[in-house]
Every structure is written in C-alpha cells, then in structure tokens.
Specification:
- There is one protein chain.
- The chain is of the alpha+beta class.
- The protein has helices at 2-19, 28-64, 70-97, 119-139, 169-173, 260-282, 290-295, 326-329, 335-355; strands at 109-115, 143-151, 157-165, 178-184, 195-205, 219-224, 240-245, 250-254, 305-308, 313-316, 321-323.
- The protein has an eight-stranded mixed sheet, sandwiched between helices.
- Helix 2 runs antiparallel to helix 3.
Length: 356
C-alpha cells in the first residue's frame, strides 16, 4: 500500500510542476486534465503526508521516552499514546481512498419517484420524498430540473422524473434506490388510524450519447397533444413526445414543455439514462431484472427505509440505522443517512478486498 502511495505522491508533485509552467494556460484542454488529475490525487496525498508526519513524530517521541529527564519522558509517553491512537484512523482513511472508484460517481443523475402501494396517500408520499431530495440538493448546491411528472388528484405524484446536476451527485445518492415505506395518519383518515404506504425511488446515472450506442432505426417517436389532470387540455398543438426503444421496449413520455423539440430532448435524456442503467445491471449477474432489481415492486413489505411519522422515526433497514429526526430529514437533512450508506459500502469493499 505504501509503495503505491509513494508513487501517487510523486505523480502529484509532477502535476504541480506542470501546472506551474507559464504556458500551461495556453492549452485549455491540457490545463483542464491536469487540474482534474491534481484535484483527484490531492485528498489521498494530503492524508498520506499527515500519516508520514505522524509516524515521524511518533518515532521522535519514542526516542525521547528514554530521555534522562523524567518530565520529558512523561510528555513523550503522553504524545506516544495520542499518536498511536491516531495512526489506525489515518491508515483506514488511506485504505478507503485507495479503493477502486466507481466510474459513474462523478455523473449527474436521473431521479425517478413513483407512487407504490397506498393509492393517493402513496402519491402524496412520493411528493414528500421529491421535496426531501430537492431540499438536500439545495444544501449540496445542486440543480434540479423536472423532466416529466404525472400528478395525482390530491396534489401528489403518480410519477416524477428529475435531472439533478452538480458535483458527485451519483456518488451521494446512488444508494437511495429502492422501496421507501411511510407509516402515518393520512389527512383523509377520519378515525386517526395509521396507514402504511410506499413509493419507489430509482437513481440512475445521467447518460450521454457517447455512453450508449443507439441506432436511429431502433427508436420510434410518437407525438400527441399534452393533457393535464382529468384530461384538461394544456396545449392545442402536438407537443408531447413519446419515444420507444424498440429492442428493449422501454418507453419514455415527456409533455411538460410547450415545445415538441424540448420534450423530445428530455425524453431522449431519460431514455439514455435508463438504457445505461440497464447495461450496468446486465453486467452484474445478481441483477437480472433491471427495473425490479432497482426498486422492487413498490409493495409495502419490500422496503429499504421506513418513515414513521407518529414516532418521528426514520429507519434504514440495510444498515440498521434508526434516527429520531424525521422532521429534519424531510426538510433535506439526510446527510447522516447518506454518510452511513457510503461508509457501509466502503466497509464491505474493504472486506471483499481483504478476502480476495
């Protein structure tokens, strides 16, 4: 591990030297690549330098531990204890930083939320989840753009798809895919009974055309007039677009924009991301059914997380984490949940690496 770290530090110093060259700004593409490589290496190099400094400090204090002056020996002993406690933590951080990175982590995402079991209450919960992710995106300084939505009669969402763009969006939200279960008293419940409903969340990396090779003859486009809830006419022109990927049968419909061109662009963006996700899942033998493996059926019994409103409790069943801050979580304060899932994934990766 340490030989690899020394090599990375050497590469980091080479990049710093190249970035200091006076003509580096003349080639913007080269400059962009250098700054990206420098930024990628900086976290691990910084921790490695801290680690080396700490080990040197520890060696110096171990020498002082045999000093004839009892006061110096006492101070050295205290420092040795503190430094020996810090070393394993830095070693763990270095191991995590050296784990192979997910090539998709830097990508933006397509977030799909669909109402599952529970009728109108499930649609309202889907809207609550979307608001939660929007608030979290605000805190992370990400941008949210609705690509498509299907409203319910009571103000919820039967389905909503949004593009979230920003720094490392996929790396933070990729573990949100699955069935989310809610337990609460619906506004329409006159006897105060707690109902259980569910919504499914799918997080897909945004795909560019270069990521997926689609033949033009594999696509079928249909245009029609947009319509709102209850069939109310929203547009008097054929601006809504339905695109079908014939080989897979994947269908995407967009009708939010008044422009047919914009709806077509949005539909294709969603389609590319769904196809990329399907390709990623095909590469993983454990995930045979693309959509079902990601989000389940939307049934109440299948869940990755439970939101219990009467108890103010939110539980992630994958990492056995229960927090009593449901109100804050629904306002987008989900960092603790996200961090726990990321840490769990890193721990599993380290365990697999050690067993290999």
């Amino acid at each position: 591990m340490f030989a690899k770290l020394e090599t990375l530090e050497g590469k980091f110093m080479e990049l710093e030297h190249e970035l200091a060259e006076p003509d580096v700004f003349n080639d913007q593409e080269r400059y962009r690549k250098l700054t990206k490589a420098h930024a990628d290496l900086k976290p691990v190099v910084n921790i490695f330098r801290q680690y080396k400094a700490l080990r040197q400090n520890l060696a110096d204090n171990r020498e002082l531990a045999s000093d004839p002056d009892p006061d110096i020996r006492e101070m050295a002993a205290e420092d040795i204890k503190t430094l020996e406690e810090k070393l394993p933590q830095l070693e763990h951080e270095l191991k995590v930083l050296l784990l192979p990175t997910d090539p998709l982590d830097e990508k933006n995402i397509l977030l799909e939320i669909r109402a599952g079991t529970g009728g109108e209450e499930a649609a309202l919960f889907a809207a609550d989840l979307f608001r939660m992710y929007c608030r979290y995106a605000e805190k992370m300084r990400w941008k949210v753009e609705i690509m498509s939505q299907s409203d319910s009669d009571t103000g919820g969402y039967k389905e909503i798809i949004a593009l979230i763009t920003g720094e490392k969006v996929y790396s933070r939200l990729k573990f949100e895919s699955g069935t989310h279960r809610v337990q609460r008293v619906p506004a329409t419940e006159s006897q105060g009974r707690i109902h259980t409903s569910a919504a499914t969340v799918a997080v897909m990396p945004e795909a560019a055309e270069v990521d997926i090779d689609i033949k033009p003859e594999d696509l079928r486009f249909d245009v029609f007039r947009s319509s709102g809830p209850g069939g109310q006419s929203v547009n008097t022109t054929d601006s809504a677009v339905r695109v079908t990927h014939i080989p897979t049968g994947i269908v995407v419909t967009c009708q939010d924009e008044k422009s047919q061109h914009k709806n077509k662009a949005k539909a294709l963006k969603v389609l590319y991301s769904r196809l990329l996700q399907a390709e990623q899942d095909r590469q993983n033998a454990a995930q045979a059914d693309v959509r079902r493996s990601m989000v389940g059926s939307g049934d109440r019994s299948e869940r990755i997380r439970t939101y219990n409103f009467p108890q103010g409790r939110i539980t992630d069943h994958r990492v056995n984490l229960t927090l009593y801050n449901l109100g804050r979580a629904m306002e987008g304060e989900i960092e603790e949940l996200v961090d726990a899932l990321v840490t769990h994934a890193q721990t599993e990766a380290l365990k697999n690496q050690a067993e290999a």
